[in-house]
Design brief:
It is built from 22 helices and 18 strands. The chain is elongated and about 85 Å long.
């Protein structure tokens, strides 16, 4: 009986927080006192751990237990701290030597039979442990492959508390008790729709390529069946694969949500997320009553967020996109904390021209309904969209045209354009034109000449363009130049960027 100390990890949003677990059993009436802002699931851990230890043959005499979770001012949530609490109690009862558990982190839920179960968010937990200097973690065997994605950390998979006891006893005896890692699984090939499947829509295909090359947001307005959804679904297929750092960040978010692929591999393809138009603010932006959970905007981190039937979304959901579109993150405020969730995505909005969807001369909607339908998309939101395009219906003549370019052909041009951007902005720590502040583009050495600036400045004077819109048009012009392999945008690039931002046939707020 004594004091024992080890480590566990908790989650705050999608980020892990290393927790020091201290357990001490003493004389007195049998009871358990837990300090450190634990939620209900965490406070119930001793009620699961004590019978689990007894069922694994480890005596647990009635005692008064004090369990401290430090730092005490950080909220602790979930059952993932069970294993750390169990190991601390085992060490306090001398079932394992206290000295060998102090520098190890433990992640897992404990069942009454002593089995160790996986929990969501193992990957960001191990990342947080590694960042805090921990080099060994014990996790549930079913989560070992996921934990092994983090470099520099030795992962020990365990299935029962009995295995935990034998592991630490062997370590204390000087034996390198290496628990076998599960066999790796072969990653399944990602099935990405091909851009060659889209019939016609040459202008829309060009806009999609521009959006992919520069990281620009896109609005598609057209009747049903024009191919808006097909175009949006093919955007990830022309984006470059995720870098190792971005892949780890995206995989961590999906780990928290319990949405990792069956092979527990890194997600290297940009995610594509398409929430239904009835989704709530918490489902799209993120939130929750107790623990804060990532929403669709975080699931689309470094990928594409597609909002079909955009005017049908609730106004508060649409306006909630404004912050992440500017900052690349969502800040969820609670009375006791602020949680930051990553949300740097490309937004693709799709809408019918009117409530009935027909548009043109076949529309049966009254004029006031036609005028107000796209008005549901607020001006501040649309001002953050770089490309706005009217997509016409597919005609009989389009069926006779040869198939368009395949995704791999377009992806090669996109990759070359992105390489040019990365080289240009490397000194400023930007990777894409869409990330460069307008103040940089409006000042030397990147400021365009008077002739090239004139169309944008005239549109600004007429009130047809805001300053934000001017900056975003400049970014698109630079992307057009990158796709051509030019070193600086021309007047034609600037004019096309302005036309794509304020096209004919798209009447929006």
């Amino acid at each position: 009986m004594g004091l024992a100390r080890t480590h566990a990890v908790t989650l705050a949003g999608v980020e892990g927080q290393l927790v020091t677990v201290e357990a001490q059993g003493g004389d007195g009436l049998p009871a358990t006192v837990m300090t450190g802002l634990a939620d209900n699931a965490c406070r119930q851990a001793p009620d699961r751990v004590r019978p689990a230890l007894r069922n694994c043959g480890m005596a647990m005499p009635p005692r008064r237990w004090t369990i401290n979770l430090s730092p005490a001012g950080v909220p602790k949530a979930g059952s993932g701290l069970d294993l750390g609490i169990a190991v601390a109690m085992m060490a306090a009862e001398k079932h394992v030597p206290a000295g060998v558990v102090s520098g190890v982190a433990h992640i897992g839920e404990v069942g009454l039979a002593g089995d160790v179960r996986p929990v969501p968010g193992v990957l960001p937990m191990v990342v947080a442990a590694a960042a805090a200097g921990i080099r060994e973690v014990l996790v549930a065997a079913d989560a070992a492959r996921e934990a092994g994605l983090v470099a520099g950390v030795r992962v020990h998979p365990v299935r029962t508390l009995s295995q935990v006891r034998e592991h630490y006893r062997a370590r204390a005896a000087g034996t390198d008790a290496v628990l076998p890692m599960p066999d790796p699984r072969v990653p399944a090939a990602a099935l990405v729709p091909d851009l060659a499947d889209v019939v016609g829509q040459a202008v829309a295909r060009q806009a999609l390529e521009i959006a992919a090359a520069g990281g620009h947001h896109l609005l598609l307005v057209g009747p049903p069946g024009a191919g808006k959804t097909m175009l949006a679904e093919r955007l990830p297929g022309i984006l470059p694969p995720l870098s190792p750092q971005d892949a780890l960040a995206v995989t961590a978010i999906h780990s928290v949500l319990g949405m990792l692929p069956a092979d527990d591999s890194l997600l290297t393809c940009p995610p594509f997320v398409a929430p239904h138009h009835t989704a709530s603010t918490a489902a799209v932006i993120g939130g929750g009553t107790r623990a804060v959970h990532p929403g669709a905007v975080s699931r689309a981190h470094h990928g594409v967020l597609f909002m079909d039937e955009a005017p049908e979304f609730r106004r508060d959901v649409l306006d909630g996109l404004r912050q992440p579109l500017e900052s690349g993150e969502v800040v969820i405020a609670r009375a006791d904390r602020h949680v930051r969730l990553p949300a740097r995505f490309q937004l693709v909005l799709a809408a019918n021209p009117c409530p009935c969807g027909s548009g043109g001369g076949r529309c049966l909607c009254p004029p006031f309904r036609r005028d107000g339908y796209l008005g549901r998309l607020s001006g501040p939101l649309l001002d953050r969209v770089d490309l706005k395009l009217a997509v016409g219906a597919v005609t009989r003549g389009d069926l006779t045209l040869p198939a368009g370019e395949a995704s791999r052909v377009v992806a090669a041009r996109v990759a070359q354009a992105r390489d040019r951007q990365a080289d240009r902005w490397r000194a400023l720590s930007y990777r894409l034109n869409a990330q460069v502040p307008g103040s940089v583009l409006r000042e030397r050495p990147w400021r365009l000449g008077p002739r090239e600036r004139r169309p944008l400045e005239q549109a600004l004077d007429r009130g047809a363009l805001t300053l934000r819109g001017l900056d975003r048009s400049l970014r698109v012009a630079w992307t057009l130049a990158d796709l051509r392999g030019a070193t600086v945008p021309t007047l034609q690039d600037v004019t096309l960027a302005l036309d794509l931002r304020t096209p004919t046939g798209v009447k929006v707020a």
